[in-house]
Amino acid sequence: MGTQKPRILPWLMSQLDLGHLEGVAWLDASRTRFRIPWKHGLRQDAQLEDFGIFQAWAEASGAYIPGKDKPDLPTWKRNFRSALNRKEGVRLAEDRSKDPHDPHKIYEFVNPGAGDFAQLDTSPETNGAGSTPDTPEDLLDLLGDMALAPLPVEGPSGLAVAPEHYSQLLLSPDSDNSLPHPNLAPPDNPLRLLLEPEEQWEFEVTAFYRGRQVFQQTVFCPGGLRLVGPEAGDQTLPGQPITLPDPGMSLTDKGVKGYVRHVLNGLKGGGLALWRAGQCLWTRRLGHSHAYWAVGEELLPDSGHGHDGEVPKDKDGSVFNLGPFVADLISFMEGSGRSPRYTLWFCVGEAWPRDQPWVKRLVMVKVVPTCLKALLDMARSGGASSLENTVDLHISNSQPLSLTSDQYKAYLQDLVEDMEF
Q1: Is the pLDDT of residue 345 over 90?
Q2: Which of 109, 176, 405, 407 is most open to solvent, judged by the fewest CB atoms within 10 Å of its CB?
Q3: Neighbours of 73 (CB within 10 A)
Q4: pLDDT tens profile 203-252
Q5: Where does the record place the region Disordered (predicted)?
Q6: pLDDT score of 231
Q7: Could you tell me if 308 and 294 are in contact, meaning their C-beta atoms sit under 8 angstroms apart?
Q8: Cα separation of 316 and 277, whole Å?
């Protein structure tokens, strides 16, 4: 049986009243706003004292036993943040964690009569050794840091692939699904279910020949995908082959059809590979046709600014980083940035159409990671900078989850901090 641990809001109020922890203090006489030190663990001036509130909660909740367990600063911080995110009566008011001199966050209680914490915080909590996940998806949440952080590793073919043991934990029906560490409480961030496991990312692939849409398919791609021509390529390579259609099915101009076929024939040898490893999307050219890429708008590749890079031949090239996307999404919700881009465009067999109509290019391919589109759609449905609206989160086969925009932004900030670690 798990021993009951204290509820975080009454416990936090007692720590604020005592004033024994460095930097943890009330900010107003009504005891509704308070500050928490929030120094990044990688800063050169970071000291153990900067994590005092996180360690104190880890000890109080039974997740850390001094002298028995190894100190785990990132986990302490993440569990404290997750515990606060679960409570509807408290919200993040200001994020000053980037302040070079005094990094901290300001929280506030938002419910009337918030001082009555016995009424406000009623959810039972148990320690990590005997806890039961709140939802069936919590077990996936536990793998959050592992799925967001690892660097690519070389597979037999030279392509970067996700470490196998991550997928085994998720996909093997015979695997032991117990928690990997008895004192590690599962994070409670539902957004992770959109972003992991990386083997189950879904992509919408659309192909254009001379500006005419000739193909569209939405696929789950274990190991990534490969754009290939109509002739079967090497089936032993990792990644799901996405066969671009013969131009004879859609084009009438004989000359154009011939040029398009020539480009598609250049994909022999493995095609154009795209896959996710860690928090990045990677690409590699395995065939003869050169390819250029850019991150553009969903409806057009924004050809005026030129390409972002050329797909490298027989080596890995990063084309997208999830960390900056989530950070830009937070700025967008706060009204201080433009809508972040997530659509990858590839120009195959020709130079990028800089300052020219992209519809004149022979083969253009658009790839949309559907989970990133869902994240942006949720931000827009919540009114971007408006924190009063509610967004509905739909994840695979799970039940819909309604979040306030403020909660949604807090979960996004949670992802950013974990990726920084």
Answers
A1: yes
A2: 176
A3: 16
A4: 999 999 999 999 999 988 878 899 999 876 666 677 889 999 999 989 99
A5: 117-138
A6: 76
A7: yes
A8: 11
From 259, 155, 217, 197, select the one nearest 365 (Cα to Cα): 217
Instruction: For residue 174, count other CB atoms closer than 10 A to its CB.
Output: 6
- Both tokens of residue 164? 């196998």
| Lookup result for tokens 């970067």 | 160
Hey, what are 187's tokens? 């994070």
Burial of 139 (0-12, 13-18, 19+ CB in 10 A): middle
CA dist 132 and 121 (Å) reads 18
Give tens-digit pLDDT for 184-213.
333 457 777 667 666 668 899 999 999 999
Phi, psi of 366 (to 5 degrees): -110, 135
Which pLDDT value is given to residue 160? 37
Amino acid at 372: L
Angle at 283 between CA 357 and CA 163, to 5 degrees: 155
Question: How far apart are the C-alpha atoms of 81 and 100, rounded to whole Å?
Answer: 21
Q: Are residues 197 and 108 in the same domain?
A: no
Torsion of CA 351, 372, 320, 42, to 10 degrees: 160
Domain span at 47: 8-112
Count of domains forming the chain? 2
Burial grade of 379 (CB within 10 A; 0-12, 13-18, 19 or more): buried
- What band does 260 get if pLDDT is binned at 50, 70 and 90? very high
Let me know: does 86 contact 123? Beta carbons within 8 Å.
yes
Of 112, 145, 169, the residue that ends a domain is 112
List 154's β-bridge partners, or say none.
160
pLDDT recorded at residue 144: 33
Q: What token pair was written down for 108? A: 């506030």
152 is a domain residue: no
* 162 assigned to some structural domain: no
Of 214, 211, 240, nearest in space to 228 by CA:
240
List the structure tokens of 238.
């990792």
Q: Which of the listed residues 52, 84, 112 is the one where a domain comes to its end? A: 112
Distances (CA, A) of 419 to 77, 144, 355: 13, 10, 36
Cis peptide before 197 (omega within 30 of 0): yes
